[in-house]
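Please decode residue identities from the backbone states below.
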């Protein structure tokens, strides 16, 4: 059985003491083990700050971008091997595995492109300069410079490749060394990618470290120049927010947590509309891709009461046509959940949601003939779309609830916002006045709003796809954080400083010269 080790202070180190087992979700067989006991986390932080930080900050964006491009190519070279690992330890179908791995390499490549355009400068201008005195001689200019700490990335189990790749891309391009901690159930894939990153020899020593196992007392050792970016449950996010050291030393913290994402079908949409088929396809894809274990998956489906019967019938037909089974088989349309703990949580969540309506397909029972962590695609039709249970918690699996509503924009807004803050909401309608009212009504509570209509049918990526050019995150229960969004993703890892002085020096050195960087 493979024993995963950590890459810390320039060497691979196996954990001491008892190890935690990782399993194949399809067979429940142990495939690897990990543990980080014995790792000196104070030394890990010092190595990142003192060894990794200076060479990163010592070069410009273009050179850092070249490193990201090389990392993207190195990971892509091992794509087939990584897909096999993802199937084995993550329970992913081949398409789901590619979605994760290509997301990582694609995001690294995208940020390499962003960085190349910035050139050799080592800072970003932030907006235009401004006259501060009686004459333009006294000038002000905001700039962003790399922070001089380390970036701790605590990643989720559902996207071990993409989650790590997107955080690395932003931090390394910004000039901060990273410490990557993967979600435990699927850590085998993240560990294999870490091996590729180290073996590539692209990054300066200390710019990349990897923790296989617990972070121990690492959080208690961070300082005001350090950053923590976390993706996971709201419960764990709350624990991080309450960490005494993070509070006392004002450690910068970004959280992406739960999200009861909504898909809203407009009252104007009929079964003959192009956007209707797009709605059905996107909902089913986002419910079942990676067995619904996506932070952007659809959890609540708002359907006008007048359309309820034919919409539910169409969704049930499509969901029941998906064959649940061994993800290594081409005949399977959906694989298992990632772990036994996930299976328990999802089954319990289905039971809670079922109390608010009827189970139209699927359910919490075992899938016949399968012994792994399997659950069927489950659609629950709510008796009352306003029931509290539908808006309280995210069931992180192939589960969604249909919420009937009157069709009014006001009710669509009220129901959607009851999720308490989301990563993405999608709207399907050809009625632009109605759509624009909903867009403005739900935007304060969402990080991203996806709008579908007949004119974009077949032209747009599904709302569950996170693109490096657009921000990813959301307010409230979604964590209140924000990442990606092109160069906006670098801001978390940089300090904005207001420079004030003679325009001939401040303006010339830090303004117009880097005008492209501030774009």
């Amino acid at each position: 059985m493979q024993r995963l080790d950590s890459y810390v202070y320039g060497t691979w180190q196996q954990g001491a003491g008892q190890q935690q087992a990782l399993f194949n979700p399809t067979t429940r067989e142990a495939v690897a083990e990990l543990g980080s006991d014995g790792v000196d986390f104070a030394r890990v932080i010092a190595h990142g700050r003192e060894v990794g930080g200076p060479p990163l900050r010592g070069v410009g964006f273009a050179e850092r971008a070249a490193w990201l491009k090389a990392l993207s190519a190195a990971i892509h070279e091992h794509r087939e091997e990584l897909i096999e690992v993802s199937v084995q330890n993550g329970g992913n179908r081949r398409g789901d595995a590619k979605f994760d791995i290509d997301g990582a390499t694609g995001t690294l490549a995208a940020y390499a492109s962003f960085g190349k355009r910035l050139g050799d400068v080592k800072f970003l201008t932030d907006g235009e300069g401004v006259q501060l005195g009686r004459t333009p001689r006294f000038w002000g200019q905001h700039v962003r410079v790399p922070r001089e700490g380390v970036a701790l990335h605590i990643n989720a189990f559902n996207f071990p490749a993409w989650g790590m790749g997107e955080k690395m891309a932003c931090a390394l391009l910004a000039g901060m060394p990273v410490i990557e901690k993967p979600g435990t159930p699927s850590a085998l894939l993240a560990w294999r990618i870490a091996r590729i990153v180290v073996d590539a020899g692209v990054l300066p020593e200390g710019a990349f470290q990897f923790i296989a196992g617990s972070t121990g007392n690492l959080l208690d050792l961070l300082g005001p120049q350090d950053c923590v970016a976390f993706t996971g449950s709201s419960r764990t996010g709350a624990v991080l927010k309450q960490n005494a050291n993070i509070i006392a030393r004002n450690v910068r913290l970004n959280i992406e947590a739960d999200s009861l994402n909504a898909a809203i079908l407009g009252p104007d949409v009929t079964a003959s509309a192009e956007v209707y088929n797009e709605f059905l396809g996107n909902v089913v894809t986002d419910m079942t891709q990676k067995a619904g274990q996506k932070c952007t998956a659809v959890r609540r489906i708002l359907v006008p009461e007048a359309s309820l019967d034919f919409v539910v019938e169409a969704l049930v037909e499509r969901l029941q046509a998906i064959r649940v089974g061994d993800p290594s088989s081409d005949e399977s349309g959906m694989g298992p959940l990632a772990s036994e703990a996930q299976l328990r949580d999802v089954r319990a969540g289905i039971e809670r949601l079922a109390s608010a309506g009827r189970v139209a397909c699927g359910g919490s029972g075992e899938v016949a003939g399968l012994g792994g962590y399997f659950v069927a695609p489950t659609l629950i039709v709510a008796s009352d779309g306003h029931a509290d249970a539908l808006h309280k918690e995210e069931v992180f699996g192939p589960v969604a609830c249909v919420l009937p509503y009157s069709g009014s924009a006001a009710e669509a807004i009220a129901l959607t916002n009851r999720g308490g803050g989301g990563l993405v909401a999608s709207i399907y309608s050809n009625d632009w006045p109605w759509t624009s009212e909903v867009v403005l009504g739900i935007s304060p509570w969402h990080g991203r709003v996806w709008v579908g209509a007949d004119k974009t049918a077949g032209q747009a990526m599904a709302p569950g796809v996170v693109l490096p050019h657009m921000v990813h995150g959301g307010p409230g229960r979604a964590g209140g954080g924000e990442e990606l969004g092109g160069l906006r993703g670098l801001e978390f890892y940089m300090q904005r400083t207001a420079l004030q002085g003679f325009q001939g020096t401040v303006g010339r050195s830090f303004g117009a010269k880097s005008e492209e960087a501030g774009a």
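Observation: The longest strand covers residues 138-146.
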